[in-house]
Amino acid sequence: MALPPAQTPLYNHTLPALEHWLKSLGGHQDPQALHCWSLQYATWKAQISLDIEEFVITYETLEQPPITRSFKYSLSREDIEAAVLAGP
Predict the structure, then answer these.
(1) Rounded Cα–Cα distance for residues 71 and 53 (Å)
(2) HSE on the CB side for 12, CA within 13 Å?
(3) Ranges assigned E (strand) in 1-88
């Protein structure tokens, strides 16, 4: 599936495009709550929720308490991806 240009706001992505993007980041969809995704990296893991008005990510590490960040869908996929992959 071809994604829109990276500078495109998330609200201009179709749901299948968002799902494809999250999978390309290594995300796994929760089969019981389809709007929830998880990411696992070497030093942190994250839970992502595609809420109605915001993209919400909660990071967990061994060293610190969970950190939650939320982003409006008006931000570009490029900006949100950079923020997500920057980790906690």
Answers:
(1) 9
(2) 12
(3) 28-29, 36-40, 45-50, 54-60, 67-72
The tokens for 51 are 């809420």
Unique residue bearing structure tokens 């995704």? 37
Residues 6+ apart with CB under 8 A from 84: 25, 39, 46, 48, 57
- SS3 state at 44: coil
pLDDT in tens, 33-69: 999 999 999 899 999 999 999 999 999 998 889 999 9
Alpha-carbon span 5 to 48, nearest angstrom: 22
Distance of CA 21 to the CA centre of its chain: 9
31: left (phi over 0), alpha (psi -120 to 50) or beta: alpha
Token readout for 81 is 């991806």
